[in-house]
């Protein structure tokens, strides 16, 4: 069997078409244990997510994690599931539709690193529509191997199966792009106009295990670099990592520094992502790996005072 996909038959006089591929983390097809199990299997089998040898990790994953996590995760997915389907897919599709209205003559499609619609299938559909150039954009402002890296892996794997390869460009990160920073500013300003402005603004980012971070992963630098977060009163919130490592102690230390720093009567915390080991997506929804979407932010709130508030951006 050939390693290459069947190429679509395209007329020679067709004009080259350009497409933008917006890649998000992924979602099960339904809020059931049967649908969640293969999604979790693919997600947690990615060595960019769990950097353990498969011979060691797979027996743990399949024997001790999937049989129990799939059912509990499905119950949490049911709490956020929309009538139209998966919230992450619905919001990603709306993003793609809105961008398509701005980019006249350019096809814009959402795709998922894990689950459906998959990256490879979406790229094949675009080729069948005459697309010869693709801009792949992982929807994560800060680059991390376990998120943007995993998304781009799917793109490169799809390219390996194309005999007639499309022209490809990728976006690695956009944490410091003026338009992204302006979008954050507008969200925060809108909240302040409606609810009043506090004395301090704290931005909470998701944890990344130090063992991985020290391997040239630029998440801390990307997250705290001005003007996206200035002054950099930031802490790594998530403690739900495959190996505890030092993420928990780093998060505790961050909160302690924040508690000592913030002394005004009114504070806001801006959580920008929830899933462990990956930075937030620009179409973030509550990832149902925990009972509470903001556990570590809530730990800070009693120390912040009665006038503190949280809001996503």
TrEMBL record:
GO terms for biological process: heme biosynthetic process. Residues 218-254 are annotated as: Disordered. Signal peptide: none annotated. It comes from the Bacteria. Residues 242-253 have a biased composition (Low complexity). GO terms for molecular function: ferrochelatase activity. Keywords: Lyase. Transmembrane segments: none annotated. SUPFAM superfamilies: Chelatase. It is an enzyme of class 4 (lyase). Belongs to the ferrochelatase family. This is Ferrochelatase.
């Amino acid at each position: 069997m050939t390693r290459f996909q069947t190429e679509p038959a395209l007329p020679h006089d067709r004009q080259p078409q350009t497409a933008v591929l917006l890649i998000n983390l992924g979602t099960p097809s339904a809020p059931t244990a049967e649908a969640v199990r293969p999604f979790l299997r693919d997600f947690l089998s990615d060595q960019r997510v769990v950097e353990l040898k498969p011979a060691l990790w797979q027996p743990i994953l399949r024997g001790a994690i999937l049989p129990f996590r799939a059912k509990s995760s499905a119950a949490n997915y049911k709490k956020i599931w929309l009538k139209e389907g998966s919230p992450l897919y619905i919001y990603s599709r709306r993003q793609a539709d809105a961008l398509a209205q701005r980019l006249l003559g350019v096809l814009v499609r959402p795709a998922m690193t894990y689950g459906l619609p998959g990256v490879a299938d979406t790229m094949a559909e675009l080729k069948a529509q005459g697309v010869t150039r693709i801009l792949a954009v992982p929807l994560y402002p800060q680059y991390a191997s376990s998120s943007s890296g995993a998304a781009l892996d799917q793109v490169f794997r799809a390219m390996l199966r194309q005999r007639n390869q499309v022209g490809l460009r990728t976006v690695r990160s956009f944490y410091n792009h003026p338009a992204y920073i302006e979008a954050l500013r507008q969200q925060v300003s809108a909240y302040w106009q409606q609810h009043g402005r506090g004395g301090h603004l704290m931005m909470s980012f998701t944890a990344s295990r130090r063992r991985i971070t020290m391997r040239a992963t630029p998440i801390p630098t990307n997250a705290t670099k001005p003007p996206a977060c200035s002054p950099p009163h930031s802490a790594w919130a998530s403690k739900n990592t495959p190996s505890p490592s030092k993420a928990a102690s780093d998060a505790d230390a961050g909160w302690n520094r924040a508690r000592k720093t913030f002394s005004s009567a009114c504070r806001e915390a801006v959580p920008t992502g929830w899933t462990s080991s990956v930075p937030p997506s620009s179409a973030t929804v509550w990832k149902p790996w925990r009972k509470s979407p903001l556990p570590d932010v809530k730990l800070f709130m009693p120390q912040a005072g009665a006038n503190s508030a949280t809001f996503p951006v």
